[in-house]
Amino acid sequence: MLQTSKLMLVVMGFVVLTCGSNAVGGQDPLPSWSAGQAKQAIVDFVGNVTKAGSPAFVPEAARIATFDNDGTLWAEQPMYFQMVFALDRVKALAPKHPEWKDKEPMASLLRGDLKRALAGGEKAIAEIVMVTHAGMSTVEFEQIVRDWIATAKHPKTGRLYTDMIYRPMLELLAYLRANGFKTFIVSGGGIEFMRPWAEKVYGIPPEQVIGSSIKTRFEMRDGTPVLMRLPELNFIDDGPGKPVGIQMHVGRRPLAAFGNSDGDLQMLQWTAAGSGARFCLYVHHTDAEREWAYDRASSTGRLDKGLAEAKAKGWTVVDMKSDWKRVFVFEK
Amino acid sequence: MLQTSKLMLVVMGFVVLTCGSNAVGGQDPLPSWSAGQAKQAIVDFVGNVTKAGSPAFVPEAARIATFDNDGTLWAEQPMYFQMVFALDRVKALAPKHPEWKDKEPMASLLRGDLKRALAGGEKAIAEIVMVTHAGMSTVEFEQIVRDWIATAKHPKTGRLYTDMIYRPMLELLAYLRANGFKTFIVSGGGIEFMRPWAEKVYGIPPEQVIGSSIKTRFEMRDGTPVLMRLPELNFIDDGPGKPVGIQMHVGRRPLAAFGNSDGDLQMLQWTAAGSGARFCLYVHHTDAEREWAYDRASSTGRLDKGLAEAKAKGWTVVDMKSDWKRVFVFEK
Questions:
Q1: Per-residue pLDDT tens for A170-207?
Q2: Of A211, B179, B243, B327, which is the most buried if we count CB atoms within 10 A?
Q3: Do B270 and A15 touch (CB under 8 A)?
Q4: CA distance A187 to chain B (A)
Q5: Is the peptide bond before B168 cis (omega within 30 degrees of 0)?
Q6: Chain A contact for B217, CB < 8 A?
């Protein structure tokens, strides 16, 4: 009986361990990352904050990791994927809106002249967003997003947008979670545009998705409660809005933050300013062949001030070309 | 070897089960609840949605339970505890604000004439809230709340406010979590007023606390990033705001919702309107001896329409006097 009890303890120990950790001894948890400074910095940081007795040890509850989405978890070229969604929705809705033929920016858009449609700047974009993202219930909008994401294809690769996700970042998300981190998306993109697929694709549940939003209103529709999406801005989760969004949704400062553009800079600053060990990482798009190469001069995902600050502060910068063995999840 | 493998499987099954559940066979998980309809309804519902193969089974990820705070998890008489906090803060700040002596509602408040101070209605309350809740960083405000909650005493019982918590509800929170539920607070109270103590007291981490809020702004103060609390309303998480707040923070509809007033009605309606099994519960304050007895005529925590709808819809109504063996956590 002693023998059996001992065996049981061993087995229980093993099983209890695997309840909280997917890390299996000996296997590289980050196989798509080349050996190098970036990978080493990640592994060192996680080792430090999770090692019991280490001066840098952080209890699980405080292991918050926040990730930008566009350009950090999935691609963002030649334009933000949510903008493609909005343009597709304008085309789908056009038959019900004959008046759009004579109204900018819709008129140019429907003629296929995207450049002219967007020449109206933020006002034009806001109008496109509102007509495509508001005027329906939250349940209806979720279904619209589900239908689009299941079928729409990227113009360059011909892949589903959910295939345009970076495999190294998926491994990183899983590695952090296996080490007791709670992973959040903190994106300038729409919160309700990401939630319908983020759990399946990233393993991030809706309650850990933070993003920009329009207002909603509780209404009774034929005796059934609905949340109607209103054409009114609620919150922009970008730049200085990211720490605000993190405080609103998470209520604690991240232990680690991951971004790729100047729109993530304040999130990284806010994270770095916390006490004890903190980790900040920028993905630098340097691979024109497998992905895209852009930084200071790009209108989408501009990385200028952030790159300078990363160098000055010693944050980790991923050189996509050399640090990632594979880029997208569809690569063998 | 076969014998051992079989044993290991059995043991692993046992251990895996206990990873997700604190329920220990034979022990009553709700000992402060009297046997009766309310307790039975809770246990039946949890059994139904967690039993594999049951037609009502719900996967863990969707087991969202939302709880009102004032009057549902802790008491709310003779006035909302956060209002006491605000009044205490006015007194603490008064020496730095000599001008308050001649300015309502502060003047009456500082003379101890609460009734006259609040005679100005919502405008007076908003002014008291803003001068006591804004003008400092989020980190500073958190410390102010921590200091107050550690020392302030309830005027009737002389107990700490964190002792004015209902033991049956603590048991219910733990019971739900042991059965794979994620528990959220959804309160009309201030989100940043609850977060500093909700984890320790309720086991609910900051990222699962939803409440009313004022706006914050990211700023650099001597090179250090801060989030400044602004005297500007951001969101009221009450009544029709509760489903809106739930959608914003959780992104899915609750499986179960718990409240005590008409301010929770829309949350319960929104929950009940979901597909499959749902659970809605009202705590009815019926115990004038151990707590307070109030409903339709109360200005704090009025329960009128909600009580009617609960009866019409067959929601569970807790009769505090008969359903709870003990009320507060400080009772033996």
A1: 999 999 999 999 999 999 999 999 999 999 999 999 99
A2: B243
A3: no
A4: 14
A5: no
A6: yes
Q: A136 exposed, middle or buried (CB, 10 Å; 0-12, 13-18, 19+)?
A: middle
Residue of A244, A262, A271, A309 for testing the chain B interface, max B β-carbons within 10 Å? A244
Mean pLDDT, chain A, rounded, equals 92
**In this predicted structure, what is the pLDDT of residue B25?**
59
Across the interface, of A227, A249, A251, the residue whose CB is closest to B247 is A227
E strand residue ranges, A159-240:
182-190, 209-221, 224-235
pLDDT of chain B along its 332 residues, tens only?
334 444 444 344 333 333 333 444 579 999 999 999 999 999 999 999 999 999 999 999 999 999 999 999 999 999 999 999 999 999 999 999 999 999 999 999 999 898 999 888 889 988 999 999 999 999 999 999 999 999 999 999 999 999 999 999 999 999 999 999 999 999 999 999 999 999 999 999 999 999 999 999 999 999 999 999 999 999 999 999 999 999 999 999 999 999 999 999 999 999 999 999 999 999 999 999 999 999 999 989 999 999 999 999 999 999 999 999 999 999 98
Which residues does chain A have within 8 Å of residue B227's beta carbon, measured at their own beta carbons?
243-244, 247, 270
- Which tokens go with A327? 């880029």
Contact status, residue B64 vs residue B250, Cβ threshold 8 Å: yes
pLDDT at B17: 38
C-beta atoms of B209 and A250 within 8 A: no
Residue with tokens 């008969």: B322
Amino acid of residue A251? G
* A-chain residues near B182 (CB < 8 A): 207
Residue A310 C-alpha, separation from nearest chain B C-alpha, in angstroms: 15
AA identity, residue B212:
S
Best residue of A8, A66, A253 to probe chain B, by most B CBs closer than 10 Å? A8
Interchain CB contact of B200 with A (< 8 Å): no
What pLDDT score was predicted for residue B5? 43
CA nearest neighbour of A248 among B262, B29, B229: B229
pTM equals 0.92
Q: Could you tell me which residues come within 8 angstroms of residue B327 by beta carbon, excluding any fewer than 6 positions away?
A: B166, B167, B168, B287, B290, B291, B320
- The CA-atom distances, in angstroms, between A99 and each of A105, A114, A232 are 12, 18, 22
Query: Cβ separation of A227 and B243 shorter than 8 Å?
Result: yes
Would an 8 Å CB–CB cutoff place B210 in contact with chain A?
A: no
Q: Tell me how far apart the alpha carbons of residues B67 and B281 are, in angstroms, rounded to a whole number.
A: 10
User: Could A247 and B138 be called an inter-chain contact, meaning their C-beta atoms sit closer than 8 Å?
Assistant: yes
Which of B235, B230, B229 lies closest to B212, judged by CA? B235
| CA gap B91, B103 in Å, rounded | 14
The rounded distance, in Å, linking the Cα atoms of A58 and A54 is 9
* Contact call for A217 and B19, based on CB within 8 A: no
From chain A, the residues in CB contact with B266 under 8 A are 218, 225
Residue that the structure tokens 């993190």 belong to: A246
CA dist., res. B319 & res. B37, Å (int): 10
pLDDT-derived band at A1, boundaries 50, 70, 90: very low
Interchain contact, A7 vs B12, CB within 8 Å? no
The two tokens of residue B197 are 């103590």
Closest CA to B330 of B149, B77, B74: B74
- The reply to whether B61 touches chain A by the CB within 8 Å rule is yes
Instruction: Note whether B249 contacts A249, CB cutoff 8 Å.
Output: yes
